[in-house]
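Sequence, please.
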């Protein structure tokens, strides 16, 4: 079974369940302020989702001075998480903890 690595700012915590990784990212790490619009969102998966669902790729590249491989890496992470995660359960758990 492959493990999910947190990956925020070099964090190497690993999780068997992707849901646990997202909860860790949301609860244990500082929130991320979006460079494009200034919204404050949980770092990790939710920050990636925000960037690519709320903004265009071009806006992302400009705001973060990113190249296309950085964009692709994040799009791959987003896709992999969404294929595997029960995001409804994640959101419910985070709401119960008062973290969202
Ligand atoms: Zn972490
Ligand atoms: Zn934004």
């Amino acid at each position: 079974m492959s493990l999910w690595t947190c990956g925020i700012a070099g964090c190497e915590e690993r999780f068997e369940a992707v849901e646990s990784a997202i909860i860790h990212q949301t609860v244990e790490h500082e929130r991320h302020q979006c460079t494009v619009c200034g919204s404050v969102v949980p770092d990790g998966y939710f920050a990636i989702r925000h960037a690519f669902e709320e903004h265009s790729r071009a806006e992302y590249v400009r705001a973060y001075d990113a190249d296309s491989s950085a964009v692709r890496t994040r799009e791959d992470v987003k896709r992999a998480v969404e294929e595997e995660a029960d995001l409804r359960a994640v959101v419910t758990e985070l709401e119960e903890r008062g973290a969202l």
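The longest strand covers residues 4-5.
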